Amino acid sequence: MNIAPYDVAIIGGGPAGLGAAIALGRSRRTVLVIDAGHPRNAPADGAHNVLGLEGITPGELLARGRAEASTYGVTFLGGAVRTAAHDDGGFRLTVQLPDRGAGTGVDGSPATGDSQPTTVRARRLILATGLVDVLPDVQGVQEGWGHSVLHCPYCHGWEVRDQRIGILAGDARAAHQALLFHQLSDRVTILPGWTSQSEGTAGVAWEAGDDDALLKALGVPVASAPVTALSLDGTQVRAALLADGSRLELDAVVVAPSFVARTELYEQLGGDPEEQPMGRAIPADPMGRTPVPGVWVAGNAQNPMAMVSASSASGVQAGAAVNADLALEDAERRIHTR
């Protein structure tokens, strides 16, 4: 199945992708948003610091964004982009649709799950593909992630204020997290994790080192032994189980994931990811233009630290920049024609 060329294809239908889609739709561009339906913040109970929509569930936020984009003629395709290639001054994408009834086609009808991928062509691309949170390998972390296992004091800190909070320490970020979460609760404890691990060894336990003075000034204690597992009731943390056999009662645990942007498509187009202290990202200028001509990036794929509102704003910026780039190209083509 081939789909007629669009001005812009946006890969990813989260806040960044939808922000870009609305900006472009309002500029009367033909826009296709391709979304695999796996938003990063799906486990979270609510999205915070979203002006006027504080605490809205992630699903409701995306539903509202899609509805707004649709009013400006933006089209949606449910599926995963498998390949991206340069094609006659633009781009060619192959999109694998979900199984029958599991998604929607480009016209809003149920996806057919055809064995042959759908081909999409577009003049410009915006990668709003987000990132993957690589969590510490501690039993219970994955089960509580997004509920009582957290990483950002601004995204979810208010919800655990005054509670018993453990900071799972694996690197230098632990002291910084302790500093910020101590602003929300005076019952914060450092939980030593393992800073390294090799085959046949138990790893090396985290130590405060140069951060010892800061932790003492804050009155943040360090647990008696490294964490071996978290004890949960469903998704709710109840305690940290320590290597010395003791149990530390807790209400929430803070972790420091590695943020790994989804860069596969960018690399297929000849781009090189950028390694950052927090993980991997796609390099770009302040408007989202990447070193690959015709390709922009928005949201967490570019800035791993961007919260929902910042991701949406970066999408709007990228959308505006792409529209200007297309307008200039169209004007130059008219000049050449004359």
Largest sheet descriptor: 7 strands, mixed
Could you list the spans in which at least 5 consecutive residues all have pLDDT below 50? 102-114
Which structural category do the helix and sheet elements fall into?
Answer: alpha/beta
Integer average pLDDT: 91
What number of domains? Answer: 2
Record field, number of beta strands: 20
The global form is elongated
CATH superfamily of the largest domain: FAD/NAD(P)-binding domain
How do the helices and strands follow one another from N- to C-terminus? EHEHEEEEEHEHEHEEEHEEEEEHEEEH
At the fold tier of CATH, the topology name of the largest domain is FAD/NAD(P)-binding domain
**Cα-atom Rg, whole angstroms?**
23 Å
Helix proportion range: 10-25%
Number of helices: 8
Per CATH, the class of the largest domain reads Alpha Beta
Strand content: 25-35%
Termini gap: 36 Å
Q: What's the CATH architecture name of the largest domain?
A: 3-Layer(bba) Sandwich
Question: Which descriptors apply to this entry?
Answer:
single chain; 338 residues; alpha/beta; FAD/NAD(P)-binding domain; 2 domains; four-stranded mixed β-sheet; 8 helices; 20 strands; elongated
Question: What does this 3D model show about the protein?
Answer:
By secondary structure, the protein is α/β, with parallel strands linked by helices. It has helices spanning about 15-25, 60-70, 140-145, 155, 175-180, 210-220, 265-270, 310-335; strands at about 1-10, 30-35, 75-80, 80-85, 90-95, 120-125, 130-135, 150, 165-170, 190, 195, 205, 225-235, 235-240, 245-250, 250-255, 260, 275, 280, 295. It has two domains: about 1-130 and about 260-335, FAD/NAD(P)-binding domain (3-Layer(bba) Sandwich); about 135-255, FAD/NAD(P)-binding domain (3-Layer(bba) Sandwich), CATH 3.50.50.60. Strands 1, 2, 3, 4, 5, 6 and 20 form a seven-stranded mixed beta sheet that branches. A four-stranded mixed beta sheet has the order 7-17-19-18, with no helix packed on it. The protein has a four-stranded parallel beta sheet with strand order 8-16-9-10. Helix 1 runs parallel beside helix 2 (about 60-70) and helix 1 (about 15-25) packs parallel to helix 8. It is elongated and about 80 Å long. The relative contact order is 0.17. Mean pLDDT is about 90; it is low at about 100-115.
